[in-house]
Design goal:
single chain, 253 residues, mainly alpha
Length: 253
């Protein structure tokens, strides 16, 4: 890996780290999307790096925030996510490539619709929804993660519609993604997939990740809670559009 490529990847990771620190999600989407668009590294390599740096990002961002977390909701999400991941992985093995692409397109349409519905009518719920809804969002997240490697949208939509403040939402998302990142890093490590390039890039990126996490905690964007929600749902819409585009290209190109 050249010095220019290394610096470019670290710069992308810094942007993703800041965004995730202030919103609770987005590191993987920004890093994998940016590195793929610029043809800097493979998706598999960057997915492994994202898992490792996410653990550091969460470790720096979460201390002192445990009082702002709804652990009952986290538990419901976790209980739903496990069977969701298993179902998603099994479906991926059973379905044809075209059927998987159709499902990916349908997910993209659903994500875009959810984002549009919020932007048109930016209201959040007046009361916390029941544990069943968190279980369903956890299952949906696990299912989409198992099928497409993208489990964020269902959880982001669920939490950002709750009557929680932005810090609480951010911290709950960070807890969830920290757990999944630890599990994924251990799994690929056991499989021997943590090669030298992955470990070196992670080592170079860790100081920048730590710095951007502190900056994100200390200097969040000067946006109101409603404005931050609009930003989040706008990003969700972009994710949905990318899913629809990928589905179309896989089916018709």
């Amino acid at each position: 890996m050249s010095t220019e490529t290394l610096l470019a990847l670290v710069a992308i990771i810094m942007v993703g780290t800041y965004f995730q620190t202030v919103t609770g999600f987005g590191l993987g989407i920004i890093v994998i999307g940016g590195s793929s668009a610029l043809d800097l590294a493979t998706v598999a390599m960057m997915a492994a790096v994202v898992s490792l740096v996410t653990v550091v990002n969460c470790a720096v961002a979460l201390p002192g925030a445990t009082k702002q977390i709804d652990w009952r909701a986290i538990g419901a999400v976790a209980v739903g996510a496990i069977p969701g991941i298993i179902t998603g992985v099994l479906l991926l093995e059973l379905l044809s490539a075209s059927a998987t692409s159709i499902l990916q397109g349908l997910l993209g349409i659903m994500v875009v619709y959810s984002g549009l519905s919020f932007l048109v009518s930016p209201t959040k719920k007046t009361e916390r929804t029941g544990d069943t809804s968190f279980f369903v969002s956890g299952f949906s997240s696990g299912l989409t993660g198992g099928l497409f490697g993208m489990g964020g949208p269902p959880l982001v939509y669920q939490l950002y519609r709750q009557p929680f403040d932005i810090k609480k939402i951010r911290n709950m998302l960070l807890v969830i993604f920290a757990c999944t990142s630890v599990f994924r890093s251990m799994f690929i490590g056991i499989q021997g997939q943590l090669n030298t390039d992955i470990l070196l890039l992670t080592a170079f990126a860790l100081p920048a990740v730590t710095l951007m996490t502190f900056i994100g905690r200390r200097f969040p964007p000067p946006l109101s809670a409603d404005a931050m929600r609009r930003v989040v749902f706008s990003v969700l819409m972009l994710i949905g559009i990318s899913l629809i585009t990928s589905s179309y290209l896989a089916l018709f190109m």
